[in-house]
Specification:
single chain, about 475 residues, alpha/beta, TIM Barrel, Urease, subunit C, domain 1, 2 domains, 10-stranded mixed beta sheet, 5-stranded parallel beta sheet, 15 helices, 18 strands, disordered N terminus
């Protein structure tokens, strides 16, 4: 298969103040602050608790507890839990793992590139010489020289270390759950979503039958979310206008359709999409870099359209979802729609889970939910503002399904036997000693490589791979 076909297939198929003083000990509990005894202090299978400022679906409280038992959240409470032997006093902000609903993760091995000019739509930059040299040709090289899923795993680690526990846009569906949940592939034992990069060019296109099957699935409820790039470009662009009209003629403007970008849509079109029940995933940084403008997200919010965020990809997007949140907040203020920090946080947690069709499972700290949990350093008295101000260097701990995948090294020390030795390694992240375990859901038959092994494979084929801790 030639390079252009390899690239095209990969692209189309898929395409994450000073600290308050330590809390006083709670009688009857082992309080741990700056200790690595998170789960090792508890016997295997024994519940443990995280203590800190807790963000729940309804409110945030300054001092609370999240109890984890196995792979599940057992309790979320304001007072100390009974019968829990180990309590880790984090001194931080505890919230659901972040959900990044738009990206092309395999391309997140590349550093950002500087577009030489403003483009009118995505088809223009995709056919440009500079894009071919900086992204497409290196991607073709990696597709032929590194094992399958190596790029994806590197991108998942990048997402994880930025507090993201679920992403969208990966290629290559697999029945094995990866390191970070892939919301449009196999997630939580099932596949609830589908994705397409480009709208079919006509009803005679080879992709049109697939679109029809997806729309049928949305109608029956078998599919909960359909991710589609639509009208990515500047308002007034003729090709984008034609794409919008074709989208309507195909009957694709239905509840469950999740539009990515829609940056070329005017206010009337945004309101039309909202009235049809469509949802929006917004990636303002990438839009601004490529088109010098972005989606009328404020109009979407005024019209009641659910809006989530996605960092897109490193060639033109943000380095993390936390960074994307800051761009989104500034841009909404510019559009005359200042957003409260709590609403911004919802866009990447509970609101994102609703857009993804996974609101019953992800995005909220509630009993019975999978223990996908993020702990951030605390530098602001308002927990929501703390999240809005955070960057990846503030990430202290990430649990996915109760598995401690990334944490401060002093919180991880007693977990030496928690995963395969080959998957656990120490990393220096923005000056902090952290421990990373890439072994979530891996098995002896399908072992997961460490970050060092992944980095070695990638840099051997393409030395200027973009660093994670940068």
């Amino acid at each position: 298969m030639d390079g252009a076909r390899l690239f095209g297939r990969a692209y189309r198929r898929g395409v994450l103040d000073a600290l308050p003083p330590p809390r006083r000990s709670v009688e009857g509990f082992r309080m741990r602050r700056g200790s690595r005894g998170l789960t090792a202090a508890a016997a295997a299978g024994e519940a443990f608790a995280l203590r800190g400022a807790v963000i729940t679906p309804d409110a945030a409280f300054d001092d609370g507890f999240v109890v984890v038992h196995g792979d599940t959240i057992a309790e979320v409470r304001r007072d100390a839990p009974a019968g829990v032997a180990t309590v880790l006093d984090t001194g931080g902000v505890i919230l659901p793992g972040l959900i990044d609903l738009h990206g092309h993760p395999e391309f997140n091995v590349f550093a950002a590139w500087e577009p030489p000019r403003r483009f009118g739509n995505r088809y223009q930059w995709r056919s440009s010489d500079i894009y071919r040299k900086l992204v497409r040709d290196p991607q073709n090289k990696l597709l032929t020289e590194v094992p399958a899923h190596t790029q994806l795993r590197y991108a998942e680690i990048r997402a994880l270390t930025g507090g993201v526990t679920a992403i969208q846009g990966a290629t290559g569906a697999t029945r094995q759950e990866p390191l970070v949940r892939n919301v449009d592939l196999f997630v939580l034992g099932r596949q609830v979503a589908r994705a397409m990069i480009d709208l079919p060019s006509s009803k005679n296109s080879r992709d049109f039958p697939r679109l029809q099957r997806i729309l049928t699935g949305l109608g029956t409820g078998d599919i909960k979310a359909f991710y589609l790039h639509l009208c990515e470009g500047v308002r007034g662009d003729k090709r984008s206008t034609s794409e919008f009209e074709r989208f309507l003629s195909f009957g694709a403007a239905v509840p469950g359709t999740v539009l990515i970008h829609a940056s070329a849509c005017d206010a009337d079109q945004i309101r039309q999409l909202a009235a049809a029940g469509c949802k929006l995933v917004w990636s303002p940084q990438s839009n601004l870099r490529l088109y010098a403008d972005t989606t009328l997200a404020a109009e979407a919010l005024r019209a009641g359209m659910p809006v989530a965020l996605g960092a897109d990809w490193l060639p033109s997007g943000s380095t993390s979802l936390l960074a994307e949140m800051k761009v989104a907040r500034r841009e909404l203020a510019r559009q005359g729609f200042p957003l409260a920090a709590a609403d911004l946080v919802r866009m990447v947690t509970a609101g994102a889970a609703e857009v993804a069709g996974l609101a019953d499972d992800l995005g909220s700290l509630l009993p019975g939910r999978p223990a996908d949990i993020l702990v951030l350093e605390r530098h602001h008295p308002d927990p929501y503002e703390n999240v809005a101000l955070a960057d990846p260097s503030w990430v202290e701990l990430v649990l996915i399904g109760g598995d401690l995948s990334y944490a401060r090294t002093d919180w991880y020390r007693d977990l030496a036997l928690a995963g395969g030795a080959a998957t656990v390694e120490s990393v220096r992240a923005w000056g902090k000693e952290m421990t990373l375990d890439t072994g979530f859901r891996s098995t002896p038959q399908q072992p997961s490589p460490s970050l060092s092994a992944i980095r070695g494979l990638l840099t051997a084929a393409y030395p200027p791979v973009g660093p994670i801790y940068a």
